[in-house]
Amino acid sequence: MGSDKVVDLQGSYLDGAIQPVSCGEFMIPREPKWDKAKVRSVFFGVDADLILQCPISPVQEDVIQWDHHSSGSYSTRSAYDWIQRSRNVERDISPLWKTLQKMNIRPKIKIFIWMLCFNALPIGEKMATALIGHGLCPHCGIAGESLMHACRDCPAVKEIFYYCDLSRKLYASNVLDCRQWLELCLRHLDPDLFMFICVLLWNMWNRRNTLVHKGILIPVRATVEYVQMLISDCQSSWELPGVGTSCNRSERWCWPSEGVFKVNVDGAFFADSGKASIGVVARDHFGLMIDGQASILHGTFTAELTEVMALLEGLKMAALNGWSQVQFECDSIGVLNRLVSQDEDRSIAGLFLTEAKQLLHNNPGFRILHVNRKANRVAHTLAHWILDCNEPFYFAFDVPSCIESDVLDDAIFGS
Fold first, then answer.
1. What region holds the Reverse transcriptase zinc-binding domain (predicted)?
2. What Rg do the C-alpha atoms of the chain give, in angstroms?
3. Which of 94, 115, 249, 399 could make a disulfide contact with 120, Cβ separation 3.0–4.6 Å?
4. What's the CA gap between 146 and 195, in Å, rounded?
5. Rounded to 5 degrees, what angle do the CA atoms 295, 300, 303 make?
6. How far apart are CA 206 and CA 219, in angstroms?
7. pLDDT at position 62, please?
């Protein structure tokens, strides 16, 4: 279903026409576990192995799912997308669209970026071809107003980029259009900075329109401060009890406050082999390791589901240890966006996120923050290291050699 993987059975099985067999009949009553004996008594060996590897969420009743969207929920848009796929219509698979979809910004800003990429804005040169206006830039009054001029090359725009200390990062190479430029920015800038640029472009367009229609030039500082306020407001609406409204942009691991434990989680997934693994590490305010685990996930997984399972294992570790004040750190913004989303999510990942929400609700001292991937390197290394092992690895004070130097470095030089 959507990004979830479906088990393709190798054998042929006949179901009862009057009383069809349900999936729940192969589970242990009132427990999120397969009845292994029953599964193996009905299905061939290879099919039974595949079924038993499927994870079961313990927190939600059965629901009807729409098979053609990752959320499992039907919408007109997902139906249209499915029809286009079935007709083999060529799809635009630029990573820009997926990144834009996951951004925690206002929908109208996302629409603006889409219009910018497809040259669908009423820019001066385009208006001049319709005999409306002279086509010159309203800011400098010298050059023709193309989209690249309005968004990057105009001296008035360069002044804003210089104020934000972005000049060297946005003028590294020559590109033909705004879409190529944004795709280049996406490849070379971190996600938070790229989001800032998208919101800034939208507000600079508003600044341009205010000048054209009202004759008012908004100061550079006010333009930038409004962008910062917008992003802050979007993050404050990204709120669920226990989920942080901000992120740690530092590239270094940061010490938690005294009396608070910090748990870093990460997942590793390789599409070619289908292997998935997780790494979870817990440290105190001195940076000393107090608990940790690394394990291979057996079953049918996706990259996002792997990240969800890592977060869930971290929450369970803290709850089982009885810790009351815990700060969790995860480098997957997509997982945290889904965790706080109010939209119905019937996917497999959504079921486990529901379990995570319950743990957060039951432990008000738990808090989750998004962090830079470099600040999450210990959990990242651990998740990749375990792929070469056959058994899960649990540890407390005996730190695995693969992360020993990084743990020591964080404890000494953490911020």
1. 74-160
2. 25
3. 115
4. 23
5. 70
6. 12
7. 64
